[in-house]
């Protein structure tokens, strides 16, 4: 069931159920995060195995997903990312749902995907910059996060 269908079902059945609203927000956060990570992997025109594995590992670790949940999320996020005309539909969710530390974690995850294949393409770097700007992560923090990820890859 797509996020849109779940949203329509929620609105039609509004009964003050806070748990359903919380679940909807969590699912929206998962999809937005996954779509941005997938975008980072595909923006250079080559979504290779290392990048796919990295995206899946980051999502599984961040959201504590079962293999079935991860497979469903990945499939849905690929479709959402493919249909998106801009980044705003995803970054607005991150701004609403995450505090500053959570937003920095997303930028760090983007760097991890971008560096997974060993090459930082100019489109990938630009994507991380644009997402960081849209979610309010400073240039200083973005560069610091890049250096942290690079240092982990060297070790």
Written overview of the protein:
By secondary structure, this protein is an all-alpha fold. The protein is built from eight helices and no strands.
Task: Provide a quick synopsis of the model.
It contains eight helices and no strands. With 155 residues, it is mostly helical. It has helices at 3-12, 18-42, 49-63, 67-83, 88-97, 100-114, 122-135, 139-154.
Topology, number of strands: 0
**Oligomer designation:** single chain
The fraction of residues assigned to DSSP E strands is: under 5%
Mean pLDDT figure: 89
Cα gyration radius (Å): 16 Å
N-to-C SSE string, H for helix and E for strand: HHHHHHHH
Helix content: over 70%
Alpha plus pi helix count: 8
Topology of this protein?
Layout: H1 3-12, H2 18-42, H3 49-63, H4 67-83, H5 88-97, H6 100-114, H7 122-135, H8 139-154
Main attributes?
mainly alpha; single chain; about 160 residues; about 0% strand; about 80% helix; 8 helices
């Amino acid at each position: 069931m797509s996020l849109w269908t779940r949203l329509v079902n929620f609105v039609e059945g509004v009964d003050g159920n806070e748990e359903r609203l919380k679940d909807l927000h969590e699912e929206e956060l998962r999809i937005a995060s996954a779509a941005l990570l997938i975008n980072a992997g595909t923006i250079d025109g080559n979504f290779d195995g290392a990048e796919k594995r990295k995206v899946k590992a980051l999502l599984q670790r961040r959201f504590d997903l079962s293999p079935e949940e991860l497979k469903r999320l990945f499939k849905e996020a690929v479709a959402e990312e493919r249909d998106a005309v801009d980044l705003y539909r995803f970054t607005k969710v991150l701004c609403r749902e995450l505090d500053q530390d959570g937003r920095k974690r997303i930028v760090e995850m983007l760097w991890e995907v971008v560096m997974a294949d060993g090459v930082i393409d100019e489109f990938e770097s630009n994507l991380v910059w644009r997402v960081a700007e849209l979610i309010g992560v400073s240039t200083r923090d973005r560069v610091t996060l890049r250096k942290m990820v690079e240092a982990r890859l060297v070790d």
